[in-house]
C-alpha cells in the first residue's frame, strides 16, 4: 500500500473521530475560543456534519483514483470521473464554509484554499480528459 493510501486511511480515521466526537470538540472550542461565539454550537455542529458529506465523497473518489493509479491505469475515463467528483467535493466544502463564515468569519480560511484546490483539480481533470482522448486515438491506430 502506498504512502498516499496510508495517509488517506489516517484521514478517514480522523474524519470519523471528528464526526463522532463533534459535540465535545465544539464544546471545547467554544470554551477555548476568545471570540464571542457562545450560542453557535448548533451552527458549528451543522457545519461539521454537513461538511462531512463532501469530505467522505472526496475521500472515496481519491482512494479509488489512487487504487487505479497503483494498477497503472492512468488515462481511463474512471479517473476523469473521480477527479470531477473530487473537484466538486472541494467546491461543495468551500460553499459550506462560505455559508458558515456568516457566523464565524475564520471559516473563510478554509473556504478559500478549498476553492483553489477545487480549481486546480478541475484543471488536472481537463488534462486527464485530454489524455483519455489521446489514449483512445492511439488504441484505434494500432
Structure description:
The chain has 142 residues and is mostly helical. 82% of the residues lie in helices and 0% in strands. The model has no long low-confidence stretch (mean pLDDT 95).
Residue runs with pLDDT of under 50 for 5 or more positions: none
Number of strands: 0
Strand content: under 5%
State the major sheet: none
Overall SS class = mainly alpha
Radius of gyration: 19 Å
Mean pLDDT score: 95
Give the helix level as a range of percent: over 70%
* Global geometry: elongated
Number of domains: 1
Distance between the termini: 34 Å
Helices and strands, in order, run as: HHHHH
Query: Number of helical segments?
Result: 5
Compile the SSE list and pairings.
Layout: H1 3-20, H2 22-32, H3 41-70, H4 77-100, H5 108-141
Brief descriptors of the model:
142 residues; mainly alpha; 5 helices; 0% strand; elongated
Short description:
By secondary structure, the chain is mostly helical. It is built from 5 helices and no strands.
